[in-house]
Structure formats: C-alpha cells, structure tokens
Amino acid sequence: MTKLRPLPLALALAAFFIHHAAQADDLVLQRVLVEGSRMSQLGIADSANAGTVGQKELAARTVYRPGEMLEAMPGLIASQHSGEGKANQFYLRGFNLDHGTDLATTVDGMPVNQRSHAHGQGWTDVNFLIPELVARLDYRKGPYSAREGDFSSAGSAQVSYANRLVKDIASVTVGQDGFARGMLAGSPEVAGGTLLYALELMKNDGPWTRGDDYRKTNAVLRYSRGFANNGWSVTAMTYRGRWNATDQIPLRAVEDGRIGRFDAIDDTDGGNARRYSLSGIWRQTDADSASKLSAYVIRNQLDLYSNFTYVMNDPENGDQFAQPDRRVTGGVDASQTWHVHRGDTVASDLTVGARLQNDNIFNGLYNTRARQRLSTTREDHIVETSGALFVENATRWGEMVRTVAGLRADRYRFDVRSDRRENTGRTSDTQVSPSFSLILAPFESTEFYVNYGHGFHSNDARGTVAGIDPATLEAVERAPGLVRSRGMELGLRTEAIPKMQTAVSLYRLDFDSELTYIGDAGMTEAGDASRRYGIEFSNYWRPLKWLSVDFDAAFARARSRGANLDGDRIPGAVEGVGQLALTVDKLGPWSGALRLRYFGPRPLIEDNSVRSKASATLNGRIGYRIGKDMQVEFEGFNLANRRDSAIDYFYASQLAGEAEPVEDIHFHPIEPRSFRVTFTKTW
What is the DSSP string of 55-73? Predict the structure, then answer.
C-alpha cells in the first residue's frame, strides 16, 4: 500500500529552489545528467507534461537529422518534406506546427523561431545544433508558465549547451547515400576560465534521384568562467548550409509510373542558409536570490526555392518561387528571483523578468525558373519589436501543496514597408496572459497537477497591415497581431513502482484562430478558431542497471470552431503518435538502442474524406567501446524498410502534359533502410 509520507521537506525545498531559481547546467548538475538516467521531476515540475532529458539519454537516441533530437519531448514528431537543410516540420498535441509555429524553441536562451518569416511564421531551423555539446533538453507543453511567451502554446523546448565537456572528443561518421560527418570538440582551461570549441563538417546526398548535395559547416566558440548558476559565458556560433531539394511529389505520378518514389518534379528546388550569433549569459545565485541577464544578436540569411504546383500557374516557365529572408535579431532577457521563507514549512520563489526583442527583416517573394528571377510578387522591410514583463510566484504551502501563479504582459509593434503602398503601415498589439498551477503531493511518490493558463502566438507582421493580396490584387482583411490561446490540464506523475517514472495528462487547448500558410501570397493568414482535447502518457522504466524502457503515447482530437461549410477538421492535425524504445548501456563494452516510432493518420481536408496513412519507423544502434577512449557505433535507420510517407498534403497541382489541375495527395517518402558507422575518440 502506498504510504502517506511526503518527501523529506529539506530535500523538496532544495529541489524547489534549484528549479525555480537557477535552472542551470553547472558542473555538478551536468555530471548528474551525464552519469544518471532521466531526471526525476517529483517535487520539481509544475505539470505532468514538463521534463528534463539529460545528455546521456539524448546521446542514446538514434536520429537521422538534428531536428529529431527534439523528439525526446514525449508526443513530438519531427518530419521533413524537402531537402535536408530546410527547417523541419513539427507535430505536437493535435497540431501540424508547420516549421515551428506554436513550438517555442531556444538554444542557450536565444530564440530559434523567426517571426514574420518569408516561408512560414515561427520558422525553426535547428540544423546548427551540434548534438555532442547539448547538456540537456528542458521541455514543457501548454500555456501554463508566465516565463514562456510567443509560440509556446503547444509546447516549448529549451536546449542548453555545456560550458565544459567531460572529455575532449573527435568523431568521424560515414554512411550510405553519400553521408559523411566529422566533428571535433574540446574545453581546455584558459586564463582562469574554460574555452569550449567545436567544429562540425557534414555532407549528405540522401536516396533521391538528384542528390540533396547537402553541405554543412558548423562551429561554436565559448569562453566561460565560474559555473552556469554563478558565472558568465560569451558564445559565438556560425552555421552555413546549402542543398538541393526533392519536395513532395504527386501520388498519381508515382502510381502510373511517370516518376519514381525518390524522383523530383522540379530538380532545381533547394536553398542555402547562414546563421551567425553572438550571445552572453551572466548568473549570480546565493541563498536568498538568483539573478540572470542574457543578451544576443543573431544574423540569419535564407534563400529558398520551391515548386509545389509545377506548371499550374505558368505552363511556360513553371511555378517555382523564391523566398529570400535576411534578418538581424537582437534581444535582452533579465530576471530576478527572491527566496522567501515563512516559518518552517512555507517557502516561496518570487520571480520578475523582462524581455526585449527586435527583428530587422528584409524578405520577398519572386517567381523564378531554375532559381533565376522572373518577376516580383512582393518585397517587404519589416521591423518587429516586442517587450514583455512577467511575474511568477512559486510557493510551497507545506509538505503536500505547491502553487505557481503568474502574470505576463506582451507588447508588439509591427512596422512594414512594402513595395505596395496598400500593404505598408504600422500597428501594435498587447496581450496579458495569466497562469496558475496547483500541485498536490499526498503520497511519497505521487503528485497531481491542475493547470490553467493563457498564451498566444504572433501573426505575420505583413498580415497585420495588409490591404491587398499581392498575387491577386484583391482586398484582404487584416489579421490581429497577437492571437490568444487558453489551456487547461489535469495531470498525474508517479514513481510508486520502483525504478519507473510515469506521467499522464488530460488537456484542452483553445485558439482564437489557426495559422494557414498561403504560398501564392508568401505569408501566413489567420483562420478559424479551434479546440483540441487530448491525453498523453509517458513512461520510463529501468528494470536493470543496464536496461531502460521508454514508452510514450499521445492522442488528440482537433476541431475547427468556425463556420466552415466544408467541415470542421483541421488539415494535417495529428491524431495519435507513439514511441517505444529499449536502451542498453553499462553492459561491459557494449551499448545499444532500438526505437519504434508511430506517426498516426491525419485528415488532409476539412471534411475528412481524404486522410493520410499512418507510418512507423524502426531505428537502432549498437556501440562497442575499444579500451577507455575509443568507441565504434553502428546506426541503422528504417530497419524494416517501410515505404511510408514522411508527410502528406492534399491540394491541386498540374504536371506537364496534363490539361488541367488535379486535386491529389502529395507526399514525401521516408528514406529507405540505410546504415552509418561512427568512430569516436576521447581524451
């Protein structure tokens, strides 16, 4: 029978302060995460859907591309419908998040989501991640924290790099389909601090008839002093990538033999991307308070060439279009936490914070042929500025009750200078977002959660001042700058069964409007309101010191609440996902993992008459340590060699030789079975 004895108060208070004050990857915490398994969230988390995944567990995952590292967040799917250098497509909690909308992603405190992007609102390109440097991934789902702002309603992922490595490392990977990667990283002591450096070079062609020819150069240089919760660091990053793209293809052309599964319709699609950043973080923590100040400046450049409808709009030149985006993003984040003790049993953390961000953006939409510009649809200069203030109080009222109450205020200013006077203007919007969480711990190893909160996402700045559609010149209705979400959730987390961590949550999330990408206009537009219900289950079991088992499953019901006569389904809204993984380590020199991922069917149009099929992939790896400092690892992807889709869409397109457009499923196949081998040296 489960005992009614709470966790020891001193231990619980210590965990409470660590979580709400620093949340830092200092050397002690870093070693805990490296040497241990998944970190327990009892006495720490504010909801059943929040968690931390450490370096060791992240390293055990077999990922085909960097974006799949985010799948360590239970219920998240990262997919791809184009070339390897393009931002991933994400699915979570009944959302097709496109390239990152409503999934707030940060790396070392720098926002990855790009606002008012040329291709999609909240564009989230994580191809610059170097997995060996990641110390941990913190995640949460739902709008239940005043600390989280734009794009975080479905979820947020915070990636933290280590200040220092346990050992210096060099690795070389070769594989099928022209894959090769080299990585070198170290962290020597220099001038009383630590100099972290890393260099990554990679190429990948993939299985496509015209290879991706993806070339990536990635580098990180960081100098730090002290620890992450009591010290400072300055970091420079640079990333460059270029690629060809085999975008989604029409099912009809594959079924009648006109093209193969790995062929392209327009083999000149592709792109190139660059990212440069300079950031700094300072933290100071003592027994009574914790202070944090961070600042960053990021330069992103993207040239993207796509053709989704082939020759439907221009039979002579084809429908390829270019979407260049140039931007400089700067920001400052500051927070101050005070620890307040009230007697022997009541303790509080009071946090106030402020955030400023400015994006100076130049983007456009052009008609092209083989990447050569033919005409201009639109050109825009956007200055988008935001400021936020938040206050959050986390209180432990005794040994069995905790509360977290927060209030956040965001102010956005949109300034658009377009090549058309009708689409030029300024506007602003404000959002106030309350949140509240109640945590009950009546048992020693079980907690219950009640969460409620408001969140938001920002709309494309161009839509907030638009007067006409630049493609058709017809009048359009302006979109609101900020769109409110409302969420509520009931959750349970338990470790009542020895060596097992289990979390269950039941949630509802409402949005005042969905975002829809309009390719012809080169922007996203606000659509109907929506509601989602869902249930999530996450389980981690370590029955033996050398074996762990992960099982996650999530189901969602997404419906439009507008007056759409075509139906109330939301195209692309994921209904069910799941993962089952077995991981072996500390078995002498051997280690390994096997992971099965299920990506459920989705409605592709509003009346649900056309649906995607479910897909399942099985990935695995086997590692063998040669002595103390050398390891060889074999990785296999899509081991069952399934012919599934990575993504599906339904729309009209026209191929050469067709008399008129045809509505059809357009899909991007998952890559066939392939293998890679990695040699790693540490010292």
Answer: HHHHHTS--SSGGGGGGGS
Query: Which two three-digit tokens encode residue 254?
Result: 């594959």
Widest distance between CA atoms in the chain: 81
- The DSSP output letter for 475 is B
pLDDT digits (tens, 9 = 90+) for 44-100: 889 999 999 999 889 889 999 999 999 999 999 999 999 999 999 999 999 999 999
Q: Which amino acid is at 298?
A: I
**Residue 604 to residue 665: CA distance in whole angstroms:** 8
DSSP string spanning 146-184?
A: TT--TT-SSEEEEEEE-SS-SS-EEEEEEETTTEEEEEE
Residues 62, 593: contact at Cβ < 8 Å?
Answer: yes
User: 513 near 529, Cβ under 8 Å?
Assistant: yes
In the chain, the N- to C-terminal Cα span, in Å, equals: 49
Pull the structure tokens for residue 514. 């969905």
d(CA 483, CA 646): 30
Number of DSSP helices (H) and strands (E) in the chain, helices first = 5, 37
- 525 HSE (CA, 13 A, CB side): 14
pLDDT of residue 22: 41
Rounded to two decimals, the pTM is 0.91
- What span, in angstroms and rounded, lies between the C-alpha atoms of 240 and 298? 14
The predicted-structure confidence for 294-322, as pLDDT tens digits, reads as follows: 999 999 999 999 999 999 999 999 999 99
Element (H, E) at 509: strand 500-511
Q: What is the 3-state secondary structure (H, E, C) of 434-468?
A: EEEEEEEEEECCEEEEEEEEEEEEECCHHHHHCCE
Do residues 623 and 632 touch, judged by C-beta distance below 8 A? yes
Determine the Cα–Cα distance for residues 380 and 466; give it in Å rounded to an integer.
Answer: 11
Q: How far apart are CA 141 and CA 531, in angstroms?
A: 16
Whether 290 has a pLDDT exceeding 90, the answer reads yes
Residue 64 to residue 657: CA distance in whole angstroms: 37
The radius of gyration of the chain from alpha carbons, rounded to an integer in Å, stands at 25
- Do residues 262 and 645 lie in contact, with contact meaning Cβ atoms separated by under 8 Å? no
